[in-house]
Amino acid sequence: MRIAVAIPCYKVTQHVLGVITAIGPEVEAIYAVDDACPEGSGRFIEEHNIDPRVRVLYNAENRGVGGAIVTAYEAAIEDDMDIVVKIDGDGQMNPGLLPHFVRPLVRGQADYTKGNRFYRPESLRGMPPMRLFGNAVLSLMTKFSCGYWSSMDPTNGYTAIHTAVLRKLPLEKLERRYFFETDMLYHLNTIRAVVHDVPMDAVYADEESNLKISKVLPEFLRKHASRLVKRYAYLYLLRDFNIGSLYSILGVLLCLMGLVFGGMHWLYSMSTGELASSGTVMFAALPLIIGIQFLIAFLHYDVSNVPREALSPELTDEH
């Protein structure tokens, strides 16, 4: 397996050389992407780096972390690499963990691996409480919108992916900024790629994160809702129509029927002062109860429908 490392470089001149030095000999190529950095990260690396594996790539304009990684992905595909590991240049990701991210891909057990700082309680000691809460909320939303119910920590940027899977993804459509990691999970689910979490500790250097949960939460809510609708329509209506589709459709219809019928009679009772009969109450409650049961059954089906067979071995043979 030819392994490459992608490092987005934006205001990381204090740490990036240390990150490069810590990358092990199992890596064949290192792509350092200067994403229109005002500090000139690319020039800084070219002037001070002594590692022959490093190749500096430049984005003419700032495209965000997603745009920087896509630039590295495209270079890795062009250079016929097999695996690309994404490591931030701010020193908060330990390059020594790279074999743990690569191993499931090499063994054909996964198509994409990502870090998970929630795996062990001890790993969370360095995480600020607000960030801990924000990541937990985002993780829950991601489970619904992306379909990977066993995954946590969706904003974790320590990832590895097989290039055979990358070739199946619409790289030009991926989100360019903070929603990039979550959008990757959404697109991976649409092609039924297998995702594994890799336990890691939360490490914070002196770099301040630009991701403010309070500011991005409304935007994330909108984008998660959009991905949820798209994933449902594609997987349960367009690509396939299965028992999960029936559960969801019947559940929604029955809930609406119960709510509309019950609401109309409640308004009538409020305006006239007449109490609804027990039969009316039951006729309103029964569809609602059954509908909720159908929606729970759909949720159970969706959880059990997580991709489990890796695509990369078969895609590699085709390539």
The shape, in one word, is elongated
Q: Can you tell me the CATH class of the largest domain?
A: Alpha Beta
User: Which consecutive residue ranges, at least 5 long each, have pLDDT under 50?
Assistant: none
Q: What's the N-to-C terminus distance?
A: 14 Å
CATH architecture of the largest domain: Alpha-Beta Complex
Question: What is the share of helical residues?
Answer: 40-55%
**Major sheet description:** 7 strands, mixed
Global mean pLDDT: 90
| DSSP strand content | 5-15%
Question: In total, how many domains does the architecture comprise?
Answer: 2
Quaternary organisation: single chain
- What would CATH call the homologous superfamily of the largest domain? Spore Coat Polysaccharide Biosynthesis Protein SpsA, Chain A
Number of helices, counting only DSSP H or I runs of 4 residues or more: 11
Output the structural class: alpha/beta
Q: Helix and strand string, N-terminal first?
A: EHEHEHEHEHEHHEHHHH
CATH topology of the largest domain: Spore Coat Polysaccharide Biosynthesis Protein SpsA, Chain A
**Radius of gyration (Å):** 24 Å
Biggest sheet: strands side by side, in what order?
A: 3-2-1-4-6-5-7
How many DSSP E strands? 7
Short summary:
The protein is built from eleven helices and seven strands. It has 319 residues and is of the alpha/beta class. A seven-stranded mixed beta sheet has the order 3-2-1-4-6-5-7, sandwiched between helices.
If you had to describe this structure to a student in words, what would you say it looks like?
This protein is α/β, with parallel strands linked by helices. The protein has 2 domains: 3-236, Spore Coat Polysaccharide Biosynthesis Protein SpsA, Chain A (Alpha-Beta Complex), CATH 3.90.550; 241-304. Helix content is 50%, strand content 12%. The chain contains 11 helices and 7 strands. It has a 7-stranded mixed sheet, with helices on both faces. The longest helix has 30 residues, at 243-272. The radius of gyration is 24 Å and the shape is elongated.
